Amino acid sequence: MDSIKIFSPATVANVSCGFDVLGFCLDSVGDEMVIHKTSEKGIKITKIEGYDLPYEAKKNVAGVSALAMYEALQPDCGFEIEIYKKIKPGSGIGSSSASAAGSVYGMNELLGRPLNKTELTKHALKGEALASQSEHADNLAPAIFGGFTLVRSINPVDVIELPTPKDLFATLIHPQIEIKTSEARALLPNSVELKKAIAQWSNVGSLVHALHTSNYDILGKSLNDVIVEPYRKLLIPHFDTIKKTTLDSGALGCGISGSGPSIFALSKGKEDAEKVEKAMKKVYSKTEIPFYTFVSKINTEGIKVL
Amino acid sequence: MDSIKIFSPATVANVSCGFDVLGFCLDSVGDEMVIHKTSEKGIKITKIEGYDLPYEAKKNVAGVSALAMYEALQPDCGFEIEIYKKIKPGSGIGSSSASAAGSVYGMNELLGRPLNKTELTKHALKGEALASQSEHADNLAPAIFGGFTLVRSINPVDVIELPTPKDLFATLIHPQIEIKTSEARALLPNSVELKKAIAQWSNVGSLVHALHTSNYDILGKSLNDVIVEPYRKLLIPHFDTIKKTTLDSGALGCGISGSGPSIFALSKGKEDAEKVEKAMKKVYSKTEIPFYTFVSKINTEGIKVL
């Protein structure tokens, strides 16, 4: 096999309480990439469709993670990468992670899987760092492992795969304004009140419990972020209205997806998730801001060969 | 039934990463209390053995929680409480919680169980607050519910019962110096670095996952406290040596029990827990400080009628 086409999914990082560590994988939105094994050595990006991104491997997120893996493995071949970018950069649903994960996943498949998912995450982190100026794996881990993940540590990479309750659906709204991850991170304070930190880790613990027990009630109560959301929501027009409206429409919880501007809600059942989508649309229809929405089941498979 | 004898167990709060929210229940150490239903109304403490504690109900931890419950229920009777105190106050294994939980648990049994465990915790919090000058349920919840607990909120009281891996054993050492919970709390900063808070909630999440999956490896890695231990260990002589020695002896993890001075370790299997006990003894035998140690299985039943 010398060529492979893959689907690299969008993801939701943080999941309200779990800033920098929790994430889950989406199903209905993602990039496509085609990777070719070549006799000529090196990493080349030969095609980029969808968004205007650099072709030079060292400056491209998918290229940087590919180079990291390439240098580690030193294979007797090269790779050409075609990127069909569907996830808008800066949308808050793991656009850079999908790129960073896609190249290393595809190369690994073409090489006969010498690396496991943890090792792929390690190389993909290098690409992610180019985009966000910090190594974090809260989007990468769910993209690569699928489902819900908890990144216990990135040095060394230690990812915990959490169970996904089977009736859980996500609703996303993406207001078409751009927030750079690096800027959204710069907003955050260096220190936080101990009292708030305690509330946050209590919610992380109860969210993990809720996922293990498919307890939708506890899951909803745990989706509460007292540390990051108060800062980052200021960058997202009508965030409070969206949140109130989605909760009123039956969502279990609602929060900022990654560093925004996308907003996610989780619901029990597809029907509720669609009601929530309708409610989100209603709020943004009244504004001048372009947006799109979608409903997705939780993608427990993660990145895959098409 | 007009009289009841109960066993109110010692508990370990915080469990390293879960300051103020996590706790587990011990088996081999606890207070005993005898509660009598009387025709004369009111709450009376009629006997205290073991330690010198106030008889006046309003000044006694068990009395204050009893009064809180008594005022809420307004029963057509009164109660006399005998306290056989085995857990030394200020030892860090939930002495005040055992008292606070014991009175309300016993009264509830004598009244035919009008209250559930959550409601008992709510009243017991009043007694706990007398001892520590703050309402926290991280010892009360495991004493009342048994096993491992996560206190998601105290207002309203919301306790999550976590599973207990069946081979898990605790080893405790109690250096006989007194640390008041209120003083140990005063040591702590009001704010913490965001970076450290993230490490902490990542560990809380992975500890909860480890309990659900009986994954002893992840459990051990999660027993890491980067926020509270660095301050509180300064109050405990030879803490670092004990920690290093117990980990070298095969403990999964080791930390301060509650606000100290007791130190707990968790091990897989009784044999390992006993090796750890031996190692702890060896360290303290070289000092002038009186101490005692014990091994306990995790008590999944909690407070009970004898």
Give structural notes.
Two copies of one chain form a homodimer. The radius of gyration of chain A is 19 Å and the shape is globular. The first copy, chain A, has ten helices and twelve strands. Chain A is an alpha+beta fold and 306 residues long. In chain A, strands 1, 2, 3, 4, 5, 6 and 12 form a seven-stranded mixed beta sheet that branches. In chain A, strands 9-10-7-11 form a four-stranded antiparallel beta sheet, sandwiched between helices.
Helix and strand arrangement:
The structure is a homodimer of 306-residue chains.
Chain A lengths: L2 E11 L8 E17 L3 E8 L11 H13 L4 E7 L10 H16 L6 H16 L7 H6 L2 E7 L2 E6 L5 E8 L5 H6 L4 E3 H20 L2 H7 L6 H4 L6 H10 L4 E4 L6 E6 L1 H16 L5 E7 L6 E2 L1
Parallel strand pairs in A: 3-4
Antiparallel strand pairs in A: 1-2, 1-12, 2-4, 2-5, 5-6, 7-10, 7-11, 9-10
Helix pairs in contact in A: 1-2, 1-3, 2-3, 6-7, 9-10
The count of DSSP E runs of length 2 or more, i.e. the number of strands of chain A, is 12
Largest β sheet strand count, sense and barrel closure of chain A? 7 strands, mixed
- Total number of helical segments of chain A? 10
Oligomer: homodimer
Terminus-to-terminus distance of chain A: 14 Å
- CATH fold name of the largest domain in chain A, please? Ribosomal Protein S5, domain 2
Radius of gyration of chain A: 19 Å
Shape of chain A: globular
Low-confidence stretches of chain A: none
Global mean pLDDT of chain A: 95
The percent range for strand residues of chain A is 25-35%
Largest interface: A-B, 39 and 39 residues
Give the domain tally of chain A. 2
Give the CATH class of the largest domain in chain A: Alpha Beta
